[in-house]
Specification:
Elements (H helix, E strand, L loop, with lengths): L4 E2 L1 H6 L6 E2 L11 E9 L22 H9 L11 E5 L10 E6 L10 H5 L5 E8 L8 E3 L10 E3 L12 H18 L5 E6 L6 H11 L50 H18 L2
Parallel strand pairs: 1-2
Antiparallel strand pairs: 3-6, 3-9, 4-5, 5-6, 7-8
The protein binds flavin-adenine dinucleotide (FAD).
Amino acid sequence: MLSGIGPRAELERHGIAVRLDRPGVGANLHDRYEVCVVHRMIHDYAIFKDQTLNVPGRDGKGDGLFVEWDKDRGGPYSTNGSLAAFVARSSVAGVDPDLYVMALPIDFHGYYPGYAAEAALKHDRLTLLVLKAHTQNRGGTITLVSTDPRDRPLIDFRYFEEGTDVEGKDMQGVLDGIALARRIAARLSSIIADEVIPGRNTDEQGLRDWVHNNAWGHHASCTCKIGAADDSQAVLDGDFRVRGVHGLRVVDASVFPRIPAIFVCSAVYMVSERASDVIIAQNR
Ligand SMILES: Cc1cc2nc3c(=O)[nH]c(=O)nc-3n(C[C@H](O)[C@H](O)[C@H](O)COP(=O)(O)OP(=O)(O)OC[C@H]3O[C@@H](n4cnc5c(N)ncnc54)[C@H](O)[C@@H]3O)c2cc1C
């Protein structure tokens, strides 16, 4: 947009000369929803006793689990940290499963400054992370705050009822995921003491409000989508070229017309591989 490629009105609002009016730039922003159901266990994890669950300090010394990993690449630090994970279907799932549930032996309930250090402080937590994939909302936007490239753009996800999911399927999917996490926890009553987040003392509306206020995402994508020549919202052609200008391609998570799969990274790697093939072939 700062280079003059984007929605005309948005560019003119900032006095940017329009080189190419492409309304799809910054539109169609997708994301997913995550929430965590965090439990307090009856006992601390024995395996974490006297461990910091942190990287080595400035002195290069790590905790016992790090020493174990350093010695022969064994122990908990040789894993991805998840106790178990599976995919499931919510009541609003389409063809593919739309829920991903992951059990973590830490106190994790979202990203904020210091979240990683805090997650490792308590050794008696079991987090059941719920990710709602295949979300309906495609109403997010990215717009400019100013013409200063050092300013962050305005990223407005338009979560839940602010977006295009008029039937509320995304919210229902998240609620189904929480119900599933609670069913799992109920079967672990011999080791779980209580649910600390979101906690049981809310009614249905209270839980909706909690999801509304606490769900987050980190798979922002689709704001520069590949599409057909007659699609006014398409920005790129199938070879990642910006339609209407020469010598400019976009290759990142913004190229997808719809947010792919359950996690996005491997799809980003795949479009990157595809783009390098295309660029090499066209420049031989
Ligand atoms: C906290 C978090 C957790 C995540 N967990 C997962 C996960 O478990 N699984 C999964 O599949 N996905 C996960 N994702 C999503 C995934 O990381 C992103 O979707 C993916 O990295 C997007 O790739 P990208 O190439 O579009 O952008 P990025 O990976 O963000 O790459 C953009 C690059 O451009 C660089 N850059 C920015 N501005 C400039 C500039 N002006 N000049 C030069 N370089 C610049 C940045 O430094 C960066 O290296 C997670 C994301 C976050 C934020």
